[in-house]
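Late entry, evening session. Most of the bench is empty. Finally got around to the prediction I had been postponing all week. Sequence below, unchanged from the version circulated by S.P.
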Amino acid sequence: MAKKQTDRSNVITGIFLICIGILFFLNTFGFLNWRTWQMIFRFWPVILIIWGLNILLKKTGIWWLVPLLIVSLFSFFVVVSFQNIDIDQINFLNRFFITSEKSEESPGDIIHNENAVKDVEKLIVEINYGAGKLFLSNLDDSTKLYETELEYDNYKPEIIYEKEDNTGKLNMNQKTDVNRKKLVNTNDWNLYLAEKLPLEVDIDTGAGKIDVDLSKLQVERFDVNSGVSDLAINFANYNTQSRINAGASNIKLYVPSESGLQIKLSSLLGNNNFNEAGLVNQGGGLFQSDNYKEANNRINLRISSSASNIKLVYR
């Protein structure tokens, strides 16, 4: 009897690990986006329920219900992702998994800073939010330091601007509490920064889609710390130090052909096209462009990731 129970536990554990492995595989090759993981994280109590059922049923003749539930839940996540189904429209989910709790909502806030660029010599930007979409680009109005457009179901982001000596500091922070009225929350941030000003940007997020266009910005340092993300960065022909620390992510890098590029990669799982794009493997996870030493501007990039799909595109 003990051996039979052990075999059943091994079957359930094996099925669970296979399903998790498939999810990471699909994410690594770009078939799943960050919203799928956000939805999975919202269902974490279901894992406890399945675990409890396993304890109750493992000595009975219907123990097979537990692996069936695991496979069914896994199939649901995959189908929703591939079919782009709006899970907020699935009635039974709204009834059983969503409360009627109200939260602060916004149709879209627009906030801008009127301080002239000439008042500071550098701008440091720190962005911290739980999950959502972030778009970052240049600001057309040369008289402003920054402008934001915000749309959110969660708590209103806190935006603080301070000036210390000749350096401006912009901090955008949001509570991580989510709106329980929705399984997937809207949290879209658009940030536009001054063009003719040295910048340092630090982004810290749990999960999200991050679209960054630095092509017209003078970014000296650009750091991203993210869990599960779809990340696209369009670099400028400018001396830039960048670090990306990500979990299961899809990463696209757009680099000017005239810029020297060096990438230090540390990744447990994943794939990249660095060799196909023309980078030379220096060994030890270091890749470098042929023109790195001669280029007037260099991009030094450090990437640490547990599981990632990285694509490099020269423009």
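Two things to note before I forget:
Residues 106-314 form one domain.
The chain has two domains: 2-97, 106-314.
Will write this up properly tomorrow.
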